[in-house]
Design goal:
By secondary structure, this protein is α/β, with parallel strands linked by helices. The protein contains eight helices and twelve strands.
Length: 249
């Protein structure tokens, strides 16, 4: 049973959402917040931190990790990466060193858009676990999110259809699937795949395109976990459109 988790990179939107989910289960969480250049996402995360900041189970380290006696009891160290972070590999290695020092399991989480050099990642994480997320969508994600970009182009009539990659998952389902994975985490590499299908009465012009990032070819033995979505793609995107319109006003 997981009782204490350390999350490096909790300034990412996925990282803070995962933190919230762990706290809901009564799990102690220490978060390490790195500097962000994307001010929009920083504001979103800061709002969430204000909401959970008084939780007695939460400990916050700003900018760098500070070890405490309680960390010796950590069951898991997680590193949540982010797109285009200039110090990604250095920060990843620091978090791995922390996990090794604490004799804890380690999980690296990031988007499948981030890295071209998967072999370098595989070498670094040889004795640990990695979760490569599909494209995430959901209200409150920043306008730089790939799905939001596609929706904004559609709303501005710059595109006549909403182009969606094969591998997409709502933020709620991605966080829940990740939480369910943690208890039975093994030293292997994972990704999620959503059971999808469009409603014939769908009112949105959605077009799926083939995902060019074939992870099975790039990462030998990667385990694909099929996730039953709690909302249809149409429903999720309509909520996202409503959110974007609201924040335009």
């Amino acid at each position: 049973m997981i009782e204490r988790v350390i999350i490096f990179g909790a300034q990412t939107y996925f990282g803070i959402c995962l933190c919230e989910r762990l706290l809901e289960e009564g799990i102690e969480v220490k978060v390490v917040l790195f500097d962000r250049e994307i001010s929009e996402t920083r504001a979103l995360v800061e709002d969430r931190l204000l909401y959970i900041g008084r939780n007695a189970l939460l400990e916050i380290n700003d900018s760098y990790y500070r070890e405490s006696e309680e960390d010796r009891e950590a069951d898991l160290v997680i590193y949540c990466g982010e797109e285009e972070h200039q110090d990604e590999f250095e920060l990843l290695q620091d978090s791995i060193n922390t996990a090794n020092l604490l004799n804890s399991r380690f999980l690296y989480i990031n988007s499948h858009h981030v890295h071209n050099g998967y072999q370098e990642l595989v070498a670094i994480l040889n004795e640990h676990s990695m979760l490569i997320l599909p494209t995430i969508y959901g209200a409150s994600l920043s306008s730089s999110n790939r799905i939001n970009k596609a929706l904004i182009q559609y709303l501005k009539n710059e595109k006549q259809e909403i182009v969606i990659e094969d591998h997409v998952l709502s933020i709620i389902d991605a966080v829940e699937a990740t939480y369910n994975l943690l208890e039975n985490l093994e030293r292997k590499f994972y990704t999620f795949s959503m059971k999808k299908g469009l409603n014939p009465e769908n009112s949105l012009p959605i077009r799926f395109v083939e995902d060019k990032e074939n992870l099975k070819k790039k990462i030998k033995g990667i385990c694909t976990i099929e996730v039953e979505s709690s909302v249809s793609i149409e429903e999720g995107l309509l909520k996202q459109i409503s959110y974007l319109k609201k924040n335009e006003d």
